[in-house]
Design a protein that fits this description.
Blueprint (H helix, E strand, L loop, with lengths): L1 E5 L6 H10 L3 E6 L11 E4 L5 H10 L4 E4 L5 H11 L6 E4 L13 E2 L11 H20 L3 E6 L2 E2 L14 H7 L3 E5 L5 E3 L1 E2 H8 L11 E5 L4 E3 H11 L5 E5 L1 H7 L4 H8 L4 E2 L2 H6 L9 H13 L9 H15 L6
Parallel strand pairs: 1-2, 1-4, 2-3, 4-5, 5-7, 6-15, 7-12, 8-11, 9-14
Antiparallel strand pairs: 10-13
Helix pairs in contact: 1-6, 3-4, 7-11
Length: 332
C-alpha cells in the first residue's frame, strides 16, 4: 500500500509510522520544520498541512491507498482535507478522540455506538463536529472515511491528569517528595494504552474495505484506578507518591482550565469494549501493561534533561489548589 500521513511524528503517530514501515507499507509523511524524523524508511515531505496549496501538491503527486490526518482538530481542517483528497484516496482516516463520548456516561462500558456529547470540553466538541461533517460527506458524496477514537495513549508523554503530558512537573514533585493532586477519591476507573499497542490495531485498518464508513476505538483492556496509575508512576520514578485527594469540582473552581480534562474526561470511569476492532483486526491485542509502559516513558524523559520541562505556572497551580483545599471550610 501507498499511505500518506499528515503529521506522523507525534506521541502516538510515531509508533504507527514505524509499524507501517515494518509491515512493508510505502509510507509518506508530510511534516513541518526541518528537524530529523525518527522513522527510517518513510519518505518525508516538508511543508505546512495548513497550507492548502502545499497539501494539494502532495495529493496530486500520487493516488493514495489511504490518507491519515493526525493533526485535524476543527471542521476547517476537515473541509480542507475533503477538498484536497476527494478522488485522490481510497480511504481517509480521521483521528478523533474517545473524549467525544457522552459525558457524563450513562453506562461505564463504552462502545462505538455510545452517543457523542461533551458539554464540558471544546476540544471534544470540535472533534464531534469533525466526525459529523465527515459522516455527512460519506453519506452524500461517498468520501471514504474511517474514524478512529484513541483514548489516553502514551509513549513520549506522561499520561496523568494534572501536571503531566508533555511536561515533567508532576514527576519532579514526586521525586522531591512534594504532594501531588489526584482528582476525586482516586477510585474512578481509567484506561491507558501504549502507542505501540495502539499501532498494532491501527495499521490493520489501513486499506481494509470493511473499515470504510466505520468508527473504531483502539485501547488496552487493562483497567486501573487513578490511585493505581499515580502510585505505579511514582514507583517507576523511584518514590512513593504523596497523594492528596481533592474533588474534581473543587479543582475546577480553583483552575478553570482543567474543566474539560477533568469533568469532560478523566473524572469519569470508563471501560472500553474493543470487540469491534478485533472483528476487523483479529490479531489485535494490547500487550504492554502500564507498569512496563510507564518505565519506558520515564526512561525516555530521563535520557535527555531537555525533555524534563518543569513549568513554574504548573507548580504555582499545584500550590494554589493545595493551599485552597487545606484552608477550605469543613463540609465544602
Amino acid at each position: 500500500m501507498k499511505v500518506l500521513f499528515i503529521g506522523g511524528t507525534g506521541n502516538i503517530s510515531t509508533s504507527v509510522s514505524r509499524a507501517c514501515v515494518t509491515q512493508g507499507i510505502e509510507l509518506h509523511l508530510l511534516v513541518r520544520g526541518t528537524r530529523e524524523v525518527a522513522v527510517p524508511g518513510a519518505t518525508i515531505h516538508r511543508g505546512d498541512a495548513l497550507d492548502s496549496s502545499r497539501l494539494a501538491i502532495v495529493a496530486r503527486t500520487e493516488k493514495w491507498d489511504a490518507v491519515v490526518d493526525w493533526i485535524a482538530y476543527t471542521t476547517a481542517d476537515i473541509e480542507r482535507d475533503i477538498s484536497v483528497f476527494t478522488g485522490k484516496t481510497d480511504q481517509f482516516v480521521f483521528i478523533s478522540s474517545a473524549s467525544a463520548y457522552q459525558k457524563p456516561p450513562v453506562h461505564p462500558v463504552i462502545t462505538e455506538s455510545t452517543p457523542l456529547a461533551n458539554p464540558y470540553w471544546e476540544y471534544s466538541r470540535n472533534k464531534i463536529a469533525c466526525e459529523e461533517l465527515l459522516a455527512r460527506t460519506y453519506r452524500e458524496k461517498g468520501f471514504p472515511i474511517t474514524i478512529v477514537r484513541p483514548s489516553m495513549t502514551y509513549d513520549t508523554v506522561l499520561p496523568l491528569a494534572i501536571g503531566g503530558w508533555s511536561e515533567f512537573t508532576v514527576i519532579d514533585r514526586i521525586r522531591k517528595g512534594e504532594p501531588i493532586i489526584v482528582h476525586g477519591d482516586g477510585s474512578s476507573l481509567w484506561v491507558l494504552t501504549h502507542a505501540e499497542d495502539f499501532a498494532s490495531g491501527f495499521v490493520g485498518l489501513l486499506g481494509h474495505p470493511q473499515a470504510v464508513g466505520e468508527a473504531f476505538q483502539i485501547t488496552s483492556d487493562e483497567v486501573l484506578t487513578w490511585d493505581q496509575i499515580y502510585t505505579t508512576t511514582a514507583r517507576a520514578a523511584g518514590r512513593e507518591p504523596q497523594i492528596v485527594h481533592i474533588p474534581s469540582d473543587f479543582i475546577v473552581r480553583c483552575e478553570e482550565s482543567l474543566r474539560g480534562q477533568l469533568l469532560g474526561d478523566k473524572s469519569r470511569s470508563v471501560i472500553f469494549d474493543n470487540s469491534k476492532i478485533r472483528r476487523i483486526v483479529p490479531g489485535f491485542r494490547a500487550l504492554i501493561p502500564f507498569h512496563e509502559g510507564i518505565r519506558r516513558t520515564l526512561s525516555w524523559f530521563d535520557a535527555d534533561p531537555a525533555r524534563q520541562v518543569v513549568r513554574k505556572e504548573t507548580v504555582a497551580m499545584f500550590d494554589r489548589i493545595l493551599s485552597a483545599y487545606a484552608g477550605k471550610t469543613p463540609g465544602t
